[in-house]
Amino acid sequence: MGIIKTHDVIIIGGGPAGLTAGIYASRAKLKTVLIEKGLAGGQISVTEKVENYAGFSAGAGQELIDIMEGQAKEFGTEMVLGEVEAVQFGGDTKIVTTNRGEYRAPVVILATGSHSRKLHVPGEDEFMGRGVSFCATCDGPFYEGLPVMVVGGGDAAVEEGLALTRFAQKVYIVHRRDALRATRIVQERAFANDKIEFIWDSVVEELKGGEQLEQVVVKNVKDGQRREFTISGIFVYIGFIPNTGFVADKVEMDERGYIITNDVMETSVPGVYAAGDCRQKLLRQAVTAAGDGATAAFAAEKYLEGRV
Ligand code: NAP
Q1: Residue 50 DSSP one-character state
Q2: Which of 65, 191, 222, 252 is deepest in the core (most CB within 10 A)?
Q3: Per annotation, catalytic residue among 138, 277, 278, 292
Q4: CA-to-CA distance for 108 and 10, rounded, in angstroms?
């Protein structure tokens, strides 16, 4: 404790956005530190198979992360295992205080990602990656010809439910009310799709199985009746939570807590950038996170050149 280290760039978060920012910043010969509170990787490291990251075919998410981390280190990114406790973005020098000491730099790249809101029901953690998924785009193809369930009534749930009909034999969409939140046109498409069956006014109560998920217990909130469905995969889409609480009053955010950036990933604070799932954007995938990270590091390099 008590150490103070000075860098050109501090990256917070070690998923695809942060690691790619590390590769680009280090290759630009910027003294770069990446602070990650756990193992590098973020959400993708729990993805069984990544098939949609161009150039990386059907390996585990963790394998892709290992390659990215190796590249970042090879070019000189210093990796720090530490938890950010506070940030000060007030002056020209930004200060990031962690449980491992204090880091100072003119540039900070926020790449802290987001996490899916969980169901918090028995079996959810147990079957994570073995039937429980938070990403239909990533995992949908594994359920070819099998019955799946989607939870939620927003755009994400209904759109992903529709996408899953390309693979699954049947898609149940469980929603806690009797009306969807999703946009009307998305609703109409879902209502017209023979493979989709809505389970209204219902919540998931328990997930059961052996090695893999096998059954889902659903309770009707109006009459209290329980039904057990044979399900191979359950996709939870009840909202996402960006990991941005620690910068809530430091950079501009939208009403859901996503950081607002311009097209070079700069936030409302000069020298502070955001990349990946923690920022307001259309598509939250590893490949777009990596693109954000590259752009943020390149913009940071230009920002630093402008200061000299
Ligand atoms: P969302 O719009 O917040 O919807 C979350 C859904 O989950 C709601 O239907 C909500 O039910 C339900 N829910 C929340 N907590 C729950 C719980 N504890 N148990 C059971 N159900 C629960 O989230 P989203 O669908 O992820 O979308 C987020 C934002 O991205 C939205 O603004 C959406 O329009 C946007 N989006 C847009 C597109 C698109 O335009 N193509 C695609 C995806 C997402 P209630 O309805 O009862 O609250």
Answers
A1: B
A2: 65
A3: 138
A4: 5
- Structural domains present in the chain: 4-115+240-307 (3.50.50.60), 118-236 (3.50.50.60)
Q: Which of 66, 125, 135, 249 is catalytic?
A: 135
Report the relative pairing of strands 240-242 and 114-116 from DSSP bridges.
antiparallel
Per the document, the length of the chain is: 308
pLDDT tens, 204-229?
999 999 999 999 999 999 999 999 99
Q: How far is the CA of 219 from the centre of ligand 1 (A)?
A: 20
Name residue 225's beta-bridge partners. Answer: none
Cα atoms in the 13 Å half-sphere on the side-chain side of 236: 23
Is 138 annotated in the active site?
yes
The per-residue pLDDT for range 120-160, each reduced to its tens digit, is: 999 999 999 999 998 888 899 999 999 999 999 998 899 99
Sign of CA dihedral 151, 153, 155, 158: positive
- Nearest-CA residue for atom 23 of ligand 1: 239
Distance 151 CA to ligand 1 centre (A): 10
Give whole-number Cα distances, 208 to 97, 180, 226, in Å. 43, 27, 14
Task: Flag residues of the chain having pLDDT under 70.
Answer: 1, 46-48, 308
Measure the CA–CA gap between 156 and 41, rounded to whole angstroms. 23
Other C-beta atoms lying within 10 Å of the C-beta of residue 138: 22
Per-residue buried b or exposed e for 51-73, using 16+ beta carbons within 10 Å of the residue's own CB: eebeebeeebbbebbeebbebbb
Longest alpha-carbon distance in the chain: 68
Of 285, 266, 283, 267, the C-alpha closest to 53 is 285
